[in-house]
Amino acid sequence: MASVARSCTRIASSTTAASRTFTIRTTAPSTARRACARQTFQNSSRRGYASGPNGASSRTPYIIGALALAGAGGAYFYLNNGSLLQAKKGSSGETPGVFTPTKDDYQKVYNLIASRLEEKDDYDDGSYGPVIVRLAWHCSGTYDKETGTGGSNGATMRFAPEGDHGANAGLKAARDFLEPVKQQFPWITYSDLWTLAGVCAIQEMQGPVIPWRPGRTDRDVSMCTPDGRLPDGAKDQTHLRAIFGRMGFDDREIVALSGAHALGRCHTDRSGFDGPWTFSPTVVSNDYFRLLLSEKWNFRKWDGPKQYQDLTSKSLMMLPTDMALIKDKEFKKHVERYAADNQAFFDEFRDVLVKLLELGVPFQSKAEDRMSLKPTIE
Questions:
Q1: Is 277 considered catalytic here?
Q2: Which of the residues 137, 212, 277, 297 is marked catalytic?
Q3: 137 is an active site residue
Q4: pTM exceeds cut of 0.85
Q5: pLDDT (tens digit, 9 = 90+) per residue, 16-46?
């Protein structure tokens, strides 16, 4: 990291200041400085890698919300087919046009999110990536297959009843991080933005490419889901099967989704738990499964809730729900498979994440219309 900083200093001193416009900053960094930001982000993502301790219905055929969004071209109104009616500024004789975002438009949104992940390195372990993934996960994981309620369609975590649920503590940081992106691209719904951001974060943290499609609409406060639909880390395998089964996931998919615990950390002021699961909390990998099997885990002696601590470094933690994956023989066989084969984990994690992000969404498009957006990090 020090060498990167020195390189950036040399580049900054030798680069003539540019005055070109950038999407977020008043004065954008030069190409050389952006290269430094990306190098720093990549190096941060590889720290200690696997090395040891270091309301409105979406089915109406009419305009479903007079969402006057301030944009360069005027106001936008969402249509039920995912297109946008653009009310253009100008003389009264102008005719409003229909704006249908293309893959290139969504790639621009993706790129802006990725650039913010590079620049904003003042969050946990140097990246907002893990908390962005958690936002996408939690806004989708409220789905109930019996009632058809919940899921990513609606972005109802914008409102206090759902945003204040205990399981969503700390996610305001992720929502605030994405707000400038929404302002730059007012035509994208919060529902699509949050899920697209989750895809971006996974890919930028060296994970698999996740096919994604738009088509979610934003709903009002009346559509907030009740508390208790997300997993409780203090519980066991019975709880996991109940929570994920409500969404339609089987044992293999439950374990694959749990692999997201390779990322991020717990906070005492949010969940009450404390610490990271892996030594590389900003890199998508199968380390979570390998550590579950290879490390010895004891109860941590502290005043907080019951959690486990690795015997070797005493710097990692596992939750009771994590340990349930190796205590239950049906879960454990998938843990063993993913621990032995990172590509198998990537392939199955990709498929189950696509399923999670689409639960309960009344898409007008078909599954084959999903798009794969290009990562900015090689």
A1: yes
A2: 277
A3: no
A4: no
A5: 333 333 333 333 444 444 455 455 455 555 4
